[in-house]
Protein backbone atom coordinates (compact mmCIF):
# COMPACT_ATOMS: atom_id res chain seq x y z
CA UNK A 1 0.00 0.00 0.00
CA UNK A 2 1.45 3.37 -1.02
CA UNK A 3 1.37 6.00 1.70
CA UNK A 4 0.88 9.64 0.77
CA UNK A 5 2.17 12.37 3.08
CA UNK A 6 -0.66 14.29 4.68
CA UNK A 7 -0.96 17.52 6.63
CA UNK A 8 -3.84 18.10 9.00
CA UNK A 9 -4.30 21.72 9.98
CA UNK A 10 -6.86 22.69 12.60
CA UNK A 11 -7.61 26.25 13.61
CA UNK A 12 -10.27 27.04 16.14
CA UNK A 13 -12.13 30.26 16.82
CA UNK A 14 -10.16 30.52 20.05
CA UNK A 15 -6.77 30.42 18.30
CA UNK A 16 -7.78 32.93 15.60
CA UNK A 17 -9.40 35.33 18.09
CA UNK A 18 -6.48 35.02 20.54
CA UNK A 19 -4.07 36.01 17.76
CA UNK A 20 -6.34 38.93 16.80
CA UNK A 21 -6.52 40.03 20.45
CA UNK A 22 -2.73 39.89 20.77
CA UNK A 23 -2.11 41.94 17.61
CA UNK A 24 -4.85 44.46 18.52
CA UNK A 25 -3.64 44.87 22.12
CA UNK A 26 -0.02 45.28 20.98
CA UNK A 27 -1.06 48.07 18.58
CA UNK A 28 0.20 46.14 15.56
CA UNK A 29 -2.96 46.76 13.53
CA UNK A 30 -1.98 50.27 12.42
CA UNK A 31 -0.67 51.56 9.09
CA UNK A 32 0.03 55.02 7.69
CA UNK A 33 -0.51 55.50 3.98
CA UNK A 34 0.80 58.40 1.94
CA UNK A 35 0.51 59.05 -1.78
CA UNK A 36 3.98 57.63 -2.49
CA UNK A 37 2.87 54.22 -1.17
CA UNK A 38 -0.18 53.93 -3.45
CA UNK A 39 0.18 52.39 -6.90
CA UNK A 40 0.04 54.92 -9.73
CA UNK A 41 -3.01 53.20 -11.19
CA UNK A 42 -4.91 53.53 -7.90
CA UNK A 43 -8.18 55.32 -8.74
CA UNK A 44 -7.84 57.96 -6.02
CA UNK A 45 -4.59 59.71 -5.21
CA UNK A 46 -4.10 61.14 -1.73
CA UNK A 47 -4.40 64.82 -2.56
CA UNK A 48 -7.08 67.32 -1.62
CA UNK A 49 -7.72 67.82 -5.34
CA UNK A 50 -8.73 64.15 -5.68
CA UNK A 51 -10.84 64.26 -2.51
CA UNK A 52 -12.77 67.30 -3.78
CA UNK A 53 -15.51 65.05 -5.16
CA UNK A 54 -16.15 63.67 -1.67
CA UNK A 55 -15.40 66.70 0.51
CA UNK A 56 -15.57 69.89 -1.62
CA UNK A 57 -14.66 72.17 1.30
CA UNK A 58 -11.35 70.34 1.66
CA UNK A 59 -10.22 71.39 -1.82
CA UNK A 60 -11.38 74.97 -1.24
CA UNK A 61 -9.57 75.32 2.07
CA UNK A 62 -6.39 73.43 1.12
CA UNK A 63 -6.03 73.50 -2.70
CA UNK A 64 -4.04 70.55 -4.06
CA UNK A 65 -2.22 69.62 -0.84
CA UNK A 66 -0.95 66.08 -0.19
CA UNK A 67 -2.85 63.93 2.28
CA UNK A 68 -2.15 60.96 4.55
CA UNK A 69 -4.39 58.19 5.80
CA UNK A 70 -3.81 56.63 9.20
CA UNK A 71 -5.48 53.21 9.20
CA UNK A 72 -6.06 51.36 12.45
CA UNK A 73 -8.31 48.79 14.05
CA UNK A 74 -11.05 50.37 16.20
CA UNK A 75 -11.89 47.07 17.82
CA UNK A 76 -10.40 43.61 17.88
CA UNK A 77 -11.15 41.67 14.67
CA UNK A 78 -13.51 38.74 15.26
CA UNK A 79 -13.06 35.40 13.53
CA UNK A 80 -15.20 32.31 13.20
CA UNK A 81 -13.94 29.03 11.79
CA UNK A 82 -16.03 26.80 9.57
CA UNK A 83 -15.07 23.48 7.93
CA UNK A 84 -13.83 25.04 4.67
CA UNK A 85 -13.47 28.74 5.48
CA UNK A 86 -12.41 31.34 8.01
CA UNK A 87 -14.76 34.31 8.34
CA UNK A 88 -13.58 37.61 9.77
CA UNK A 89 -15.28 40.81 10.86
CA UNK A 90 -12.90 43.77 10.69
CA UNK A 91 -13.56 47.09 12.44
CA UNK A 92 -11.22 49.80 11.25
CA UNK A 93 -10.92 53.53 10.91
CA UNK A 94 -9.15 55.70 8.37
CA UNK A 95 -8.26 59.14 9.64
CA UNK A 96 -7.43 61.55 6.82
CA UNK A 97 -4.94 64.39 7.30
CA UNK A 98 -3.95 67.27 5.04
CA UNK A 99 -0.16 67.68 4.96
CA UNK A 100 0.79 71.36 4.96
CA UNK A 101 4.05 72.69 3.44
CA UNK A 102 5.65 72.88 6.92
CA UNK A 103 4.83 69.13 7.41
CA UNK A 104 2.03 69.92 9.88
CA UNK A 105 -0.84 67.44 9.64
CA UNK A 106 -4.34 68.90 9.86
CA UNK A 107 -7.19 66.43 10.57
CA UNK A 108 -9.70 66.37 7.70
CA UNK A 109 -12.14 63.57 8.50
CA UNK A 110 -12.47 60.17 10.11
CA UNK A 111 -13.94 57.31 8.11
CA UNK A 112 -14.96 54.22 10.08
CA UNK A 113 -14.98 51.08 7.96
CA UNK A 114 -16.44 47.70 8.86
CA UNK A 115 -15.82 44.77 6.52
CA UNK A 116 -16.58 41.07 6.39
CA UNK A 117 -13.97 38.88 4.75
CA UNK A 118 -13.74 35.18 4.05
CA UNK A 119 -10.57 33.17 3.67
CA UNK A 120 -10.53 29.72 2.14
CA UNK A 121 -7.48 27.44 2.39
CA UNK A 122 -6.60 25.43 -0.70
CA UNK A 123 -3.83 23.06 -1.68
CA UNK A 124 -1.88 23.04 -4.91
CA UNK A 125 0.49 20.15 -5.32
CA UNK A 126 2.29 20.01 -1.99
CA UNK A 127 1.70 23.68 -1.12
CA UNK A 128 -0.85 25.13 1.24
CA UNK A 129 -2.46 28.23 -0.23
CA UNK A 130 -5.51 30.35 0.35
CA UNK A 131 -7.84 32.88 -1.17
CA UNK A 132 -9.45 35.92 0.39
CA UNK A 133 -12.73 37.52 -0.62
CA UNK A 134 -14.62 40.59 0.54
CA UNK A 135 -18.18 39.69 1.53
CA UNK A 136 -19.53 43.05 2.60
CA UNK A 137 -18.72 46.30 4.26
CA UNK A 138 -20.04 49.59 5.47
CA UNK A 139 -18.50 52.98 6.01
CA UNK A 140 -19.55 56.05 7.93
CA UNK A 141 -17.70 59.28 8.47
CA UNK A 142 -17.37 62.15 10.88
CA UNK A 143 -15.68 65.48 10.34
CA UNK A 144 -13.47 66.59 13.22
CA UNK A 145 -14.06 70.03 14.69
CA UNK A 146 -10.28 70.52 14.76
CA UNK A 147 -10.24 71.38 11.05
CA UNK A 148 -12.14 74.66 10.82
CA UNK A 149 -13.63 76.05 7.67
CA UNK A 150 -13.76 79.85 7.73
CA UNK A 151 -17.20 80.91 8.95
CA UNK A 152 -18.21 77.47 10.25
CA UNK A 153 -17.48 75.03 13.06
CA UNK A 154 -15.67 72.49 10.90
CA UNK A 155 -15.51 70.69 7.59
CA UNK A 156 -18.69 69.06 6.42
CA UNK A 157 -18.93 65.30 6.66
CA UNK A 158 -17.70 63.77 3.38
CA UNK A 159 -20.20 62.11 1.07
CA UNK A 160 -19.90 58.66 2.58
CA UNK A 161 -21.78 56.61 -0.02
CA UNK A 162 -19.38 57.73 -2.76
CA UNK A 163 -16.37 57.00 -0.52
CA UNK A 164 -17.84 53.63 0.49
CA UNK A 165 -18.36 52.63 -3.14
CA UNK A 166 -14.84 53.74 -4.04
CA UNK A 167 -13.44 51.87 -1.03
CA UNK A 168 -15.25 48.65 -1.97
CA UNK A 169 -14.08 48.99 -5.57
CA UNK A 170 -10.49 49.67 -4.44
CA UNK A 171 -10.50 46.72 -2.05
CA UNK A 172 -11.88 44.49 -4.77
CA UNK A 173 -9.43 45.82 -7.38
CA UNK A 174 -6.27 46.15 -5.23
CA UNK A 175 -6.71 44.88 -1.66
CA UNK A 176 -8.06 41.38 -2.31
CA UNK A 177 -5.58 40.61 -5.13
CA UNK A 178 -2.72 41.87 -2.89
CA UNK A 179 -3.90 39.66 0.00
CA UNK A 180 -4.19 36.70 -2.35
CA UNK A 181 -0.71 37.29 -3.77
CA UNK A 182 0.73 37.50 -0.24
CA UNK A 183 -0.94 34.36 1.09
CA UNK A 184 -0.76 32.32 -2.10
CA UNK A 185 2.00 33.43 -4.47
CA UNK A 186 2.17 31.79 -7.87
CA UNK A 187 3.88 28.40 -7.79
CA UNK A 188 7.47 28.14 -8.88
CA UNK A 189 7.87 26.74 -12.44
From TrEMBL:
A biological-process GO annotation: lipopolysaccharide-mediated signaling pathway
Residue intervals of the Lipid-binding serum glycoprotein C-terminal domain: 1-188
Listed InterPro entries: Bactericidal_perm-incr_a/b_dom, BPI/LBP/Plunc, Lipid-bd_serum_glycop_C
Main location: secreted
Top-level lineage group: Eukaryota
MF (Gene Ontology): lipopolysaccharide binding
Gene3D superfamilies documented for this protein: Bactericidal permeability-increasing protein, domain 2
Annotated keywords: Antibiotic, Antimicrobial, Disulfide bond, Glycoprotein, Immunity, Innate immunity, Secreted, Signal
Any Gene Ontology CC annotation: extracellular space
Keyword Repeat annotated: no
Comment on protein domains: The N- and C-terminal barrels adopt an identical fold despite having only 13% of conserved residues. The N-terminal region may be exposed to the interior of the granule, whereas the C-terminal portion may be embedded in the membrane. During phagocytosis and degranulation, proteases may be released and activated and cleave BPI at the junction of the N- and C-terminal portions of the molecule, providing controlled release of the N-terminal antibacterial fragment when bacteria are ingested.
Function: The cytotoxic action of BPI is limited to many species of Gram-negative bacteria; this specificity may be explained by a strong affinity of the very basic N-terminal half for the negatively charged lipopolysaccharides that are unique to the Gram-negative bacterial outer envelope.
Subunit-level organization: Monomer. Homodimer; disulfide-linked.
Protein name: Bactericidal permeability-increasing protein
Lineage, uppermost ranks: Eukaryota, Metazoa, Chordata, Craniata, Vertebrata
